[in-house]
Amino acid sequence: MPAAKVTSLSPWHVVFIIDDSGSMGPDQSQKGASPASQVCDGLKSMVAEMEVIAKGSKPYFRISIIAFGTNADNIAEAQGEREIDINAIATFTGSRGSTRPSEAFRMAIDILKRNPGKPTDFRPYVFFFSDGAPDDDDRVSALQAAAELKALKIDAGEPTLWALGYGAIDKDFMQKVGGAERFKEVTDAAALSKLFPIIGTTAGTQTGEAGVDKAIMNY
User: Fold this and answer.
1) Residue 5 falls within a domain, yes or no?
2) Which residues make Cβ contacts (< 8 Å) with residue 182, sequence separation at least 6?
């Protein structure tokens, strides 16, 4: 049974699947930071919070990051919060083309299979973030891959998949990805800079998975 809280003896593998398609880039009609740059800030905030929680040399977290657009890229795989160079990694610009998440979901499956963890670990979570809708010809494949990801059997437990979206999202698609209980619509990409630290803080308490899910839904 997965651990009740994140510790050095029960680390948490967190996989981020980040939409870096063209719609995440700068909008010339609007002022302010692009969605992609706001996601970068959010990831940096969460890793900083993870380092605070860990308070030592032994890792509490394993971080994997997948960026997708037309294709998917494995940006980081199962790296500890002190090992990962998030400033070098979080450089998304919204330049990866169209929105085809199926390859990203399957890449997450492969990463988790290579890093199955232990039965005493905290259950792995996958956070899927997108601001739009999948390409029409990738929708069915993406939903199939998401279902396979949630059903994956590894030592640390079946992964929990959250769909986080903002903007012109396909709500039906996102709800099917995460399930009705694990789909959250946020106001904008900048919200991640506050949401991710909340997730990290909650995981270090005795409330466990239920606390993490509640913190996300109530954000």
Assistant:
1) no
2) 160, 161, 162, 163, 213, 216
